[in-house]
Design goal:
152 residues; mainly alpha; 5 helices; flat
Length: 152
Amino acid sequence: MSDTPILSIGAEGLDVAQLVANLQATVERKARDGVYADARVARAEKTNLIHLRGTDDFITFYLASLREAVFVDIADFEIRERRRVFGRLLVAFKTLIWKLLKFYTYRLWSQQNQVNGLIITALEGMEEQNAARVAALEKRIAELEKAGHGRA
C-alpha cells in the first residue's frame, strides 16, 4: 500500500492545517456549548462511540443523548400514498386500519416508553452513585497522601 492520501485538500493561498485547526476548535466549542447534544447527532455519531470512550465526559454526554432519544414518538402521523392508481382508496384503507389498531399500538408504545424511561433513570442513578464513589475515593487518596507526606 502507498502512503498517498485518498483525499488531498489544497489551493493556492489555502492553509489546510489552519483550516483543520479552526474546524476542530469550532467543533470543540460547539460540543462544550451543547450544540451536539441533540438525539439526531447521537444517532449519527453512534459509530464513533468507541473512539469517544476514552474521554472524561463520555458517560455524561451519552446519558444525555439517551435521555433525549429514549422515548418512542406516539403522535399521529400523516398517511401518504405515492401510487396514483387507487391512491385515495389506499390512504382511506390505511387510515381505517390505523384507527382500528391505534388503541393497541398506543398501549404498546406507552409501555415501551415506561420501560425505556425506567432503564435510563436506572443508568443515570448508577452513574451518579459511581461518580460519588470515585469522588470519595479520590478525596480519601488525597488525604492519605497528604498524611503520608506529613510523616516523611
